[in-house]
Design a protein that fits this description.
Layout lengths: L6 H48 L1 E2 L7 E11 L13 E7 L2 E7 L6 E7 L4 E8 L2 E6 L16 E11 L2 E10 L2 E11 L19 E9 L2 E12 L14 E2 L2 H12 L2
Parallel strand pairs: 1-12, 7-13
Antiparallel strand pairs: 2-3, 2-12, 3-4, 4-5, 5-6, 6-7, 8-9, 9-10, 10-11, 11-12
Amino acid sequence: MCLITSPGNYSYKYRIEELKLKNFITFGRFKYTMLVRFRILLLIAGFIITISYSCREKGGKYISQGEIHYNIEYIGYSSTFPKELMPKNLVVSFKDNKILFEILAPIGNSGIVNLVNPELNLCDTYISFLGARHYYASKPGELHPGFAAMAGLELHKTDKTTVICGYNCHNAEVTFPSDRSRKYQIWYTDEIKVKDSNSSTPFYEIKGVLMSFFFFMGKSELRFEAETVYKKDVPDKYFERRPKFRPISKQDMEKLIADMVNF
């Protein structure tokens, strides 16, 4: 038996299939367009988030007290101690001309703390390592222990500028006796009101606040980059001598710091 389809029925079915095909193509184009737009939005959002979290300035300029949080990068790391357990951040608390540097490991309450409080004539270095708690009280004008590897540095200020965490920063180049042709870069700002913030560090010639810098400690190079600046009230007790730390000599403190960083 033969089934005969009328021309009218054939035309109707053809149009239905044609409409389905057009709808499919249109929906496919719409879906592709939305996917492209979504990906573009993701890229923009990721870019904004990266900028926001890579360096945040929440304190405003010319603040006289607050905190600066720095990321720590280890260059040429050769310690047997797992890098994951090494300190990842430096927190600097400041109030007028008082300043506190804290480098603390993520576990074990280990770390190095430098305290400068001219009002109480304090220039202390504290270390907690393997359960031991010691401190050394530096004399006026003396550098904190741990910077023996920075001896002989020469510092030359340049005209280069940049912006870090919203602060206008100036540049200085640093060289060492072993190779004066190799230049290390540091960046500092005068838009944070801390007086003589580097007086007990190898960069005492810099009067501004360091925002990107480095230290050689033993055989290790540590690089610090400011991530966030907070304006906040810092209690005066932060800048007092810490109890339950046993005093030791500068030589012993130098050895403990070298052991901790190059363990």
